[in-house]
Structures are given as C-alpha cells and as structure tokens.
Design brief:
The chain is built from 9 helices and 4 strands. The chain is α+β, with helices and mostly antiparallel strands and 212 residues long. Bound molecules: glutathione.
C-alpha cells in the first residue's frame, strides 16, 4: 500500500492515524508541497485535484482522505473508525465533516497563496483570515465534544479523532490559542496519549523538516 504523503499535510495525517490505529503497513511516497510537486503532471494524473494524500492499493487509486479512511474501514474493519449506524455514526460524521469541509479547505496552502497573489493580502491579513476560520470551526465543535476529555465520540477512537488531531496540530503550529475551546484541547490531549496519534504526527515522518 503506497501513500503519497507530505509530513505537514493534515489531510495525509488523518490517513496516517487511521493506518496506525489499524496496524496497516504502508509505503510513503513523498510529494513535497513546498516544492510544488503536487503540480507535477505524473502526480496530477493520479490526483486531478493536485492535493495530498493519494493512496494506491493494488489496482485502486483513491484520493480524498475521508474516502481513503472509509476504504480502509471496509477492508480492515478492526477497529472500526466509522460506526456502522446509530447516533454515534451521525455525530462522528458531523465532527469529521465540520473539520474536513468547513474548516480545513479555507486555510489550505493554495487558498492562502491565492489571497496574496490575487488580492494582495498581507501576511498579517492572512493570519487574521486563518484565525477567523479556526475560531468559527472550533466554536462549532466545542459543544459536541465531551466535557471532561476522552475520545470525541464514545469510548474508542473514530474518524472524528483522526480529523480533530491534525486540525488542532495546524492551529498550534500557527500559535492559535485554544483557551476558548477547553473541550477541543482536552480531546486533542487525550488522543495524543495514544501511540497511533504520535507515530502519525508530522515530526515522526521521514520527510519531516523543522519549521524555520
Ligand atoms: N479534501 C482533501 C484535502 C486535501 C488537501 O487539501 N491537501 C493539502 C495538504 S493538507 C494539499 O495538498 N495542499 C496543496 C496545495 O494547497 O497546493 C482531502 O481530504 O484529502
């Protein structure tokens, strides 16, 4: 199983967590987003959206981190990350989609680049933009999370935790304060006690480069 991956990609980080939770061996293929390798024609042939991650398993090539995790969940259902039914399934999807659809895309690298190249937004303006959408998203997540910490939903890790941790890691990277979101912070800290979340972290990847 090959994963086209970049250490700092939070969408790839979601998939890395899922594979660690399921004990799936995988082979990293580096796509350096800072060097623009996502725009190379060979990569675009695999992922027309020119985004990371992409997974290759046998004959199948899959893009979109949530579609990849759904594929993994069906092929290796132990442990299940997307509950089969009931209110838990609904809440897991609500949390995951809030992060993956309403938060993450707005602060993606290509969006930030477009803000500066097409609208002349300064670095300070972009920071304000990023903080605004992080704040809006975390405000939506906060009341859904357990008050005293623990997994996002129920008593085991799910797709919601796979999405929450990379999004919080992104926020911490830009020194965003989680003080107004104590449940988000507690859920993040709880997840990070589990080894699967730590081996999947950016600084544990072979292509990791420290921030400068
Ligand atoms: N919805 C996609 C999002 C993928 C995505 O946005 N990946 C980012 C890294 S986290 C990327 O490749 N950015 C490159 C760019 O903005 O040019 C998924 O969940 O897989």
């Amino acid at each position: 199983m090959d994963l086209y991956n970049f250490f700092n990609s939070s969408a790839a980080y979601r998939v890395r967590i899922a594979m660690a939770l399921k004990n799936i061996d995988w082979n990293p293929i580096g796509v350096n987003l800072r060097a623009g390798e996502q725009h190379h024609s060979e990569y675009q042939a695999l992922n027309p959206n020119r985004l990371v991650p992409t997974m290759h398993d046998g004959e199948q090539t899959i893009t979109q981190s949530l579609a990849i995790i759904d594929y993994l969940d069906r092929k290796w259902p132990d442990p299940r990350l997307i509950p089969a039914d009931g209110p838990a399934r609904t809440r897991v999807l609500e949390l995951a989609l809030t992060i993956a659809c309403d938060m993450h895309p707005l602060n993606n690298m290509r969006v930030q680049k477009y803000l500066s190249t097409h609208f002349g937004i300064t670095d300070a303006g972009k920071s304000e933009w990023v903080e605004h959408w992080l704040s809006a998203g975390f405000s939506a997540l906060e009341p859904w999370l357990p008050e005293d910490g623990g997994w996002c939903v129920g008593d085991a890790p799910t797709l919601a935790d796979c999405c929450l941790v990379p999004q919080v890691a992104n926020a911490l990277r830009v020194q965003f304060s989680l003080d107004p979101f104590p449940r988000v912070r507690r859920a993040y800290e709880y997840c990070m006690r589990h080894v699967a979340f730590r081996v999947a972290a950016p600084n544990a990847q072979p292509d990791y480069v420290a921030a400068h």
